[in-house]
Amino acid sequence: MDALQSWWDGLGGWQVPVRVLIIIVVATLIRLVLQFVIARVVRTIVTGVKKRQGVHDTQALAATPLAAVRIVQRTRALGGVLSSVVTTVVVIVALLLVITTISPDAAGAFSLITAAVGAGLGFGAQNIVRDTLNGIFMVIEDQFGVGDVVDLGPATGVVESVGIRVTDIRDVNGTLWHVRNGEIVRVGNLSQGWARAIIDLAVPYEVDIEDVEARILATAVTLQHDPKWRRLIIEKPEVWGIESISAEAIVIRLVVKTRTSAKDDVARELRARLKRTLDDAGIRLPALNSIVLSGYEGAGSIRGARTPKTQPVPLGEQASSSAPKDPS
């Protein structure tokens, strides 16, 4: 101890720089240790859930019970928020210690400066406080987590990260949106609970509606009993009946309750089977003037890092189909 004290006294004018260096090194080590602990806890929880469910990929959890999926997503979101909080607190404390080390008399002056700056910037800083608190409460209340497909108003897509102030959303086009948590006033989560595949099938006006509905329902029930699709369909399909009537066609609505991540896959497979069923029955679908896509259809097809597979529409075909017909 005496040797250490004599070494410290021998530093002379270098005591302040050495003390500042020690504060920076200790703060860095504390941050690294806390970040390691948070990452280790998150990894342990996620690995434990995957092991209990018998899967290795997070995407495979889509077929497991909802609780397992939510634990993984919520844990990762909380881990991101806690990492941001740890970094912010450590940096602020280290900065204060460095200032008081360089100038011991700066503590009182610093408090006065802080009060003056706080009074001057209080109105502007309330946005930062609102962003922080809103982000923390959204994660604690499990409104969404990393990997969820959400509609936040300003952006719709997959949640890639949840920070203490900003949430990153990747939309269907690949654009990464940075949404301030304080600007999120509503959350539409497409990944919680269950989803519903809704298929509106237009059939000719003169067909036997009861026969068509029976064929449609039988096709959907066959899909439900298929071993490949059985685990993705939660309840028995339902035909809700006639959705609309026009001079061109009668629209019949079929709904299938599915797991959130399987809605689009089930809908695509069911459309293909319905097409074959109607072809076998000799029912030719009427030509519709236009098809308008809106709502969550674009974001719902995202699978995290898996890019959606789309095919471009030829410009000539699109122009010819949308051009008005000559009445003559």
UniProtKB/TrEMBL annotation:
Q: Does the keyword Transmembrane helix apply?
A: yes
One of this protein's Pfam families, by short name? MS_channel_2nd
List locations, semicolon-separated.
Answer: Cell membrane
UniProt lists compositionally biased (Polar residues) regions at 318-328
Domain named Mechanosensitive ion channel MscS: which ranges? 127-191
For whether the record's keyword set contains Transmembrane helix, the answer is: yes
Q: Which UniProt keywords apply?
A: Cell membrane, Membrane, Transmembrane, Transmembrane helix
Q: Where is this region: Disordered?
A: 301-328
Outline the extent of the Mechanosensitive ion channel MscS C-terminal domain.
200-284
Name the InterPro entries for this protein. LSM_dom_sf (IPR010920), MS_channel_C (IPR049278), MscS_beta-dom_sf (IPR023408), MscS_channel_2nd (IPR006685), MscS_channel_C_sf (IPR011066), YbiO_bact (IPR045276)
Give the bilayer topology. Answer: Multi-pass membrane protein
* GO-annotated molecular function: mechanosensitive monoatomic ion channel activity
Q: Which family does it belong to?
A: Belongs to the MscS (TC 1.A.23) family.
Q: Please give the name of this protein.
A: Mechanosensitive ion channel
Q: What species was this sequence derived from?
A: Protaetiibacter larvae
